[in-house]
Write a structure and sequence with these properties.
The chain has a 5-stranded antiparallel β-sheet with strand order 3-4-2-1-5. A hairpin with a 2-residue loop joins strand 1 and strand 2. The chain contains 4 helices and 5 strands; from the N terminus they run E-E-H-H-E-H-H-E-E. The protein is 36% helix and 25% strand. By secondary structure, the protein is of the alpha+beta class. Helix 3 packs across helix 4.
Length: 159
């Protein structure tokens, strides 16, 4: 499964973690505001943290079994930017920009190379990339052990 999100820990305060979510795949959609999504996302981060594999597995299992709310007390999504992402519209804007630069779509190799360069640039530009802040309050603070401010990971979390 392709990664959809990049998550970065902005703050941990007790049992609450604040994450900056950035869309890294056009199929991500809006970030879900529910316990299953939060549990899967945190499980992916904990899988990379030293000594946190069991907690990661437990959160992931709760998400899969429909009991994530037993570990996740609250989830909120704020500071949404560039949502919803409209892939077709983004591609049309790139096409128009390439035409404005005088590129000819009939020159397939030059057109495709320029288009891919612009598509990659879109996903590297924070002013155009969809992003949001996700705040998750867990029922137990020790579930966050192993995560620290600044940690970052990719995730295919869904919810």
């Amino acid at each position: 499964m392709s990664s959809l999100w990049n998550a970065t820990v902005e703050e941990i305060a007790g049992a609450t973690v604040t994450l900056r979510l950035t869309v890294i795949h056009p199929d991500a959609g809006d970030p879900p505001e529910n316990a299953a999504f939060a549990a899967r996302l945190l499980a992916d981060g904990l899988e990379r943290a030293a000594g946190a594999t069991e907690r990661a597995s437990a959160l992931d299992s709760r998400a899969d079994s429909g009991t994530a709310d037993e570990a996740v007390a609250a989830v909120s999504v704020t500071e949404r930017r560039n949502f919803p992402f409209r892939e077709h519209a983004a591609k049309e804007r790139i096409t128009a920009a390439l035409r404005d630069r005088g590129l000819d779509p009939d020159d397939t190799s030059a057109w495709e190379a320029a288009f891919q360069t612009e598509w990659r640039a879109l996903w590297q530009d924070p002013s155009r990339t969809p992003r949001a802040t996700l705040t998750v309050r867990l029922r137990e603070a020790d579930l966050l052990d192993g995560l620290t401010t600044g940690d970052s990971w990719e995730s295919a979390a869904y919810g």
